[in-house]
Amino acid sequence: MPPSPLCSPTRAAILTGRSAARIGITAPVCHQPEEVLASSVDRSGSPELPARPVRSVTRLATTYRTIALALKEAGYATAHFGKWHLGPEPYSPLQHGFDVDLPHWPGPGPSGGYLAPWKFKNFAARSPGEPIEARMATEAVR
Is 7 a residue of the active site? Predict the structure, then answer.
């Protein structure tokens, strides 16, 4: 069972082996421009609410040990393909132990859609209408 029904909290939990709540990434907000590295509770919430909203962390801090770092220490090459959504540089997969990151996009989903042409910098489609899943599979095999 995933730690969350949301992409960023689940991804952070799987990469670090920690719960999403412990990391503080509890919402898919890591594409937001504001860098928040510590979660906080909204103290000004309504007294009628049974719970107060929590402000989510917006970046996976590079201080966390990830599965990619553990694999690299064991001599493996590591690669990340597809959606990251845990923060842009300096919080990208390359700073979390991955040797390769394609398409190196920090956003919430494919830039331009799932079918080519995409709008990724330095990751052009080979043909119009190429599915991004097929391209990621080809790159992973390569």
Answer: yes
Contact 83, 7 (CB under 8 A): yes
**pTM for the whole structure:** 0.85
Closest residue by Cα to residue 91 from 106, 103, 77: 106
**Backbone CA torsion sign across 10, 20, 15, 98:** positive
Residue 40: its H or E element: strand 40-41
CA atoms of 16 and 64, how far apart (whole Å)? 7
pLDDT in tens, 16-64: 999 999 999 999 999 999 999 998 887 776 777 777 778 899 999 999 9
Tokens linked to 126: 């080979």
Distance from C-alpha of 94 to C-alpha of 132, rounded to nearest angstrom: 21
| 119: three-class secondary structure by DSSP | coil
Of 30, 80, 85, 96, the catalytic one is: 85
Active-site annotation holder among 7, 30, 80, 96: 7
pLDDT in tens, 91-128: 999 999 999 999 998 887 777 778 888 888 888 888 99
Residue spans per domain, the chain: 77-141
